[in-house]
Amino acid sequence: MKLLSGLLTGLLLTCGGFARADESTAQFYGWSPDGRSVAFLESHVLSDSSGAIYTTLTIVDSGKNTVLNTYVAEFEPFDTQLNDAQIIQLTTRKVIKQALPVLTRLKISDGRGGTVVWKPALQNRSDDLDQKFQVQIREQLWRFELSHKDYAPNQKCPTNGSPYPARGLTLSVTSFPQPSTTVTTTLQADGARLPARRQCAQGYFAVEVRVQGDYLAVLLAITRPSGFEGGNLMNYMLVTGRRPTP
């Protein structure tokens, strides 16, 4: 219970009081012992008339960079006396309960958070959507590069003005196993069509990198226009793969 309590506290602290419309936050839930499976939590407070709050738990196959399962728990606080933080606690517990059989089978535990190897205190966003950063783990150096790919504008997507190109991503990591030797691994490269969940994506940026066993996971934020007072919405995804070898 202490581990779950700590997980909930971390999720709530990153919510920042939900001062803006349609706020969202995400964090790692846990890994399997070998790192082959990983799960993360994502919570949203909707600004529409429902005022709904929901939490999702997504389980990913780290080796295949493939979503295995996604669970959703929603709460519509019509006349409740509960505040947003209390409702997020309820939806988080509910979604974990839904996912528990699969979490147990895959041996994913909230007490096994993996090792945080990169998590900047501040997100310095520039006009350039692409992102480069490096991670130093003892004698190992990893350089990550996130680039964007434009797709045709989706006329069904909300905008904050004029239509914009939907965007996909390519994420790679370069390691240096020997002096004057580099090995670049592409963790994800979107193809001819974007997945349905990202048809309105405008940009991506990395917020955290963790490792467990032979695997790594990069938590990415996905931004898109809300069509409401020039604001943006945010969702999250994991990109996973084998960690570079020394």
From TrEMBL:
InterPro entries: DUF2259_secreted (IPR018725). The lineage of its organism: Bacteria, Thermotogati, Deinococcota, Deinococci, Deinococcales. It comes from the Bacteria. Residues 1-21 form the signal peptide. This is DUF2259 domain-containing protein. Keywords: Signal.
